[in-house]
Amino acid sequence: MATEKTLNDLFLDTLKDIYYAERQIVKTLPKMAKAASSAELKAGFEKHLEETEGHVERLEQIFELLDKPARGKTCDAILGIIEEGKSIMDEFKGTAALDAGLVSAAQAVEHYEIARYGTLKTWAQQLGLSEAVTLLDATLQEEVATDKKLSQVAMANVNLKAA
Ligand SMILES: [Fe+2]
Ligand SMILES: [Fe+2]
Fold first, then answer.
1. Largest CB tally within 10 Å, which of 91, 96, 123, 139?
2. 131 in a domain, yes or no?
C-alpha cells in the first residue's frame, strides 16, 4: 500500500508549487512592463511586481510557520502560461495588438494564482492554520484586484487600440 498521505502533505506540496510560480512571475513581470506600450499597463505591471515580491515573502512566512524550509517545486502550468506570454511578446512586437496580448497573458497568470490561493486558503482553514489563512487571503485579494484592474485597462484602451 502506498504511504499514507494527508491534506497536510497536499498543502505543503501546493505551497511549493505556488512558491516556484511566484518566483517565476517576479522574473517575468519586468519583461512585460518593458514590453507594454500603454503607460497605464506598464505602471500596473510595475506595481504588481512589488506586490508579487510581497507574495514570495508571505509564502516564506508560511513555510516558517510550518517549520519547513522554503522550497519550490517545478510548476509546469506556470511555465506554460509564461511561455505563451513570451510567444505573444515575440509575435506581436511593435503592433497595436501587443498590449491586448500582454493583458491576456497577465490575466492567465492571475487566474492561475487565484485558483491556487483559493484552494490553499480553504485547506489552511480546514487544517486550522489561522495565521496562514490570513497571509493567503491577503495575497488572494491582491491577485483578484490585479485581475480586475487588468480587465479595466483592457476595456478602457488596450482593446480599442487593437481593434
Ligand atoms: Fe502573486
Ligand atoms: Fe499576481
1. 139
2. yes
CATH of the domain at 89: 1.20.1260.10
Provide φ and ψ at 72, rounded to 5°.
Answer: -90, 165
Question: Which ligand neighbours the alpha carbon of 120 most closely?
Answer: 1
Q: Residue 55 Cα, ligand 1 centroid: separation in angstroms?
A: 5
User: Residue 5, by phi and psi: left (phi above 0), alpha (psi -120 to 50) or beta?
Assistant: beta
pTM: 0.94
Please tell me the total count of domains within the chain.
1
**Å from CA of 1 to ligand 2 middle:** 39
- Residue 64 domain boundaries: 7-162
Over residues 73-125, the pLDDT tens digits come to 999 999 999 999 999 999 999 999 999 999 999 999 999 999 999 999 999 99
- Residue 149 inside a domain? The answer is yes
Question: For residue range 3-56, what is the model confidence (pLDDT) as tens digits?
Answer: 799 999 999 999 999 999 999 999 999 999 999 999 999 999 999 999 999 999
* Residue in 137, 125, 136, 142 with CA at minimum distance from that of residue 52: 142
